[in-house]
Amino acid sequence: MASAAPALLSGLAQSLVQRPPSLRELVTIVGYAEDYTWFAGLVRRLFADEAEAALSAPDARERVQRFARLVGEKHFPLYMPAIEFWAESDDEPPWSWMRRGIPFDLMGFGYEDIHELWNSYREGISALLLLAEPPESFYGDTDEIRTAWLESAAQRIPQSTLERIPEEGIPIESLAEAVKDTRFEGAAQAASWVFSGTGNFFLDHNYEDGSFDGFADPWEDEVIAIGTEEWREARTLMDSVCSLADWLEEDLPGHFAEMLDIVLPRIPEQPAEQEESDHDD
């Protein structure tokens, strides 16, 4: 009577696709049989209709990439640089890395992003940030950041238009009030996004500055459901910002001035600072 397969390999037969694997692939799968069984089970659990096509890819890299594309289409994007690194790793196969936690793709802005805004991002989004006053707790000297932004903007927008903006920018709360129920709500949303104040996981975190430094969230249904909803909300905000940026970029000098015509008169009056008194009331 044949002996039973070792427990570690008990689920391997169902995990393998119906084709002869290469020797290297077989070594990878058998050597990490428990991890591959977990990965195949995850793919089948999340994507019952597409699982076999994803798992029939010719190599480990393509299997994980197909899985990542499915997650991005139906739930939220995964961080592809990490997945590419895992695929190239000689230490462990990519599904072993994947098992350690969800590699969310994050859309937050880091230090370099902020300081290279006009060089690295769309002009429409960069222009929207000119309206907002950076929070005091933000990266470094906020006056220095605004000066750099305004210098870059002056190459595209007349100086006379830029001088209409309050010198330190508009506090984000006041900006949000000014653009409420107008076509320019994306201006306040852009400021909240870039300054990590949306309250949304995907928009307020980035890998550059360690605001989110690991893939610790497990592939549990509850976590996936929360991530899916967070990404839906993130997409809604980003679409609003990008729609306004599209309009600005059609005629950046003219449309930016038109936006100021609507927004500036709507800014709530700021309470005057109470002067210090040299005597008691």
Helix and strand run:
HHHHHHHHHHHHHHHHH
Global shape: elongated
Total individual domains: 2
Specify the helix fraction band: 55-70%
The pLDDT mean sits at 86
Alpha-carbon distance between the two ends:
100 Å
Figure out the total of helices.
17
Contiguous runs where pLDDT drops below 50 for at least 5 residues: 1-18, 274-279
Total beta strands: 0
The major β-sheet equals:
none
Rg calc: 25 Å
Class by helix and strand content? mainly alpha
Fraction in beta strands: under 5%
Describe this structure in words.
With 281 residues, the chain is mostly helical. It folds into two domains: 91 residues, no CATH class; 156 residues, no CATH class. 56% of the residues lie in helices and 0% in strands. It contains 17 helices and no strands. The N terminus and C terminus are likely disordered.
Brief overview:
Helices cover 56% and strands 0% of the residues. The protein is mainly α and 281 residues long. The chain has 2 domains: 8-98, no CATH class; 111-266, no CATH class.
What key phrases describe this protein's structure?
single chain, 281 residues, mainly alpha, 2 domains, 17 helices, 56% helix, elongated, disordered C terminus
Which secondary structure elements does this structure contain, and how are they paired or packed?
Elements lengths: L11 H4 L7 H9 L1 H14 L4 H5 L4 H15 L5 H9 L5 H5 L12 H5 L1 H4 L2 H6 L13 H12 L5 H4 L9 H8 L5 H10 L6 H4 L16 H30 L1 H12 L18
